[in-house]
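TEACHING EXERCISE
Course module: macromolecular assemblies
Task: Read the component lines below, then compare them to the predicted structure of the full complex.
Student: A.B.
Group: 4
Components provided:
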Amino acid sequence: MRSSNAIRIAIGILGIALLSWYYGLIGTFAGLGWSLLVLVLQNYDKVLQVSSDLLGVFSSISDWSERRAVVNFLQGTINLSASKINHEGVGLLPHTLRVEIVKPIDRETFLREGQVVVCMESSRSRDRNLARAALFYVAEDLVRDSRRFIDPVVIRACDFAVTRKMLMADNRIDSLRSLNDEFLDQEARRDADLRSYVLGMDDMDTQGTLTRILLKEFADLGPRLSPKLSDIQAERESREFTDKLVLLARKQPGIDVDPTYEGDVIRVGIMPIARADVSDIEPYVKYARKCFSNNVPILYVLARGLLNISQAKMAIREIESLRLYQKLADSQFTVTRKGEAMSCFISRCVLSKR
Amino acid sequence: MRTAKKMSIKALNKIDLETFLRGIGLLDAFASGELACCQCNATITRDNIGFIFPIHEKILVCCNNAECLYAASRLKAGNRE
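Instructor-supplied answer key:
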């Protein structure tokens, strides 16, 4: 249990005890009611998800329950999964989802409102519904302001990779199968590159670089390039940068891959700390110096395993003390590779002012 | 904490399909099998209906494959801009 949750529960129990002591039985009920309300509001998406199971029981006898079961399940499940994605990369899915039941309207009102209506199956086909709604949501909201600057195949692959990640994180295996069968396989038959990019992004995700590096860099394109409507150079570089990250994700020990991408729009240095046996941090400082002199604005420091992580932190301190780069943010997380859990670390550093 | 900005999806349950299509004037075409996907031209049925959206004073219907989903997203985005 997270400590913030434990503190909230302790405050709640203390509040109920105080009200109960001061007002007796009425105070106890008022305290319980208040705590319940706070609990529901703080876990609204979870409550929606749980309520959909309850409503599903009555779906065969009540149309209202049938409609609400579908809507509550989709909204609750997608928002919970999206918050996990946003935890890894802030602002990747900037909007929370609200699923509304469409009401029968006339033609003129429908034309005026201009919204896309998504047709859903019954509440018993929740896996198909979830795959469809999740992909629709991600295709609309993922790095929303930057989408027009990214290569069309790459951004579609990102949509599939993130939707798959959302479904896998929530153990929605049947929804994942539905997404693959109904959408990805059809698309991949038409465009072989799409499948290879989705697979490449899956490999990146096993190292944590999909959300923390690729999508983070993509998210920054929109604010930098707006108000342009499109940018051919950015599209080309988004594809090349993705290729570079896929290569790095699949790199075998002993094979060298240049870890820098120096385009006109995307300029990033990637510094994997992979030699815990070598205690000298000088090669890393040398690489940071090279990036600094080439005016590469962003440097990512990556490490896997506790020894490498401590060495990465040491290298960052040295780079900061030399005023080459400054740490903007870092994250430490666990990935599972070949059934083995491993600590990983990614830090995003920005070029120091000259 | 996530931002309060919201994106809404209008969901149409299959139990309301006929009523909704009647309201927007597409039920006859749907019932007679004349309603086709605006992208791949497949006949729209209860099983493959995916998205319904208005554009330039017309109502278009897409089947439920991914390409049509993207077309609907792109057209909607184009409308917004």
